[in-house]
Amino acid sequence: MGALTRSAAIYRYRLPMEAGVVLRNQRLKTRDGLLIHLQQGEQQGWGEIAPLPEFSQETLEQAQQATLIGLQAWLVGEDMAASELPSVAFGISCALAELTGLLPLRADYRKAPLCTGDPDELFAMLNALPGEKVAKVKVGLYEAVRDGMVVNVLLEALPELKLRLDANRSWTRAKADSFAKYVNPAWRDRIAFLEEPCKTRDESRGFAQATGIAIAWDESVREADFVVQAEPGVAAIVIKPTLVGSLSRCRELVEQAHQAGLTAVISSSIESSLGLTQLARIAHWLTPDTIPGLDTLDLMQAQLMRGWPESRLPLLNTDALECLWRS
Ligand SMILES: O=C(O)CCC(=O)C1=CC=C[C@@H](O)[C@@H]1C(=O)O
Ligand SMILES: [Mg+2]
Question: What ipTM does the predicted assembly reach?
Answer without folding.
Answer: 0.97
